[in-house]
């Protein structure tokens, strides 16, 4: 039905959602990432043997007719999309299919904030709601970005968010708008390497919001983003600077590159 060159499987969080004792491989949105979670199978197999649940969201056929292209053709705020210029019919067409990346979710204990920008996303979130009914609550936000939201909003600790802008914060569910928030400083252009071919750049300049909270007081931040380092230090966080120069080229930051599978405690009710 299609062919694609495989991209490096660097952003392991993008296609795997870990909720409680369950691993969910989400339905990929880009053909070049279709087989990415295969490389994590040895780990998932071991977790399964040790008692965890292991689920795979229905896999799309990904013909040209599978993709809802309406949003990406009208606006783009950054995020991975499949480049389909002129859709062609296929004998395998089934219409729009569920496609939904784990990186479209913000996990907050028993609550999941899920970004929906296309009909593909809506189908994926509907599946997620039915699958998780009685265990987790799913809250939709609409068109926060093309798809991924971990360079839009991140939870630094319970009660405190890191957001790209006040407009992003106002798009969140009412219960989450009551949390305190830190608005990230605008990055300066000289924080990023220059490339001869700008087509290689996969992310917006706000990629350094993609921090990793290690605990309620400690955050890993790109050392190439000194404005953000200072902002979080002023908020009394212990900031661990880590060097990652080519984050726009690799399409991700520390949150994308990591996938926490075992956490202390259990799911809390933060939004009740």
Question: Can you tell me about this structure?
Answer:
The chain has helices spanning 41-49, 119-132, 166-170, 174-177, 226-234, 247-250, 254-257; strands at 16-19, 22-25, 53-56, 105-108, 111-116, 137-142, 153-157, 160-163, 180-183, 212-215, 218-222, 238-242. The chain is an alpha/beta fold. It has a domain at 1-78 and 93-149: L-arginine/glycine Amidinotransferase, Chain A (5-stranded Propeller). The protein has a three-stranded mixed β-sheet, covered by helices on one side. A three-stranded mixed β-sheet has the order 4-5-6, with helices on one face. The chain has a three-stranded mixed β-sheet with strand order 7-8-9. It starts with 15 loop residues before the first strand and ends in a 15-residue tail after the last helix.
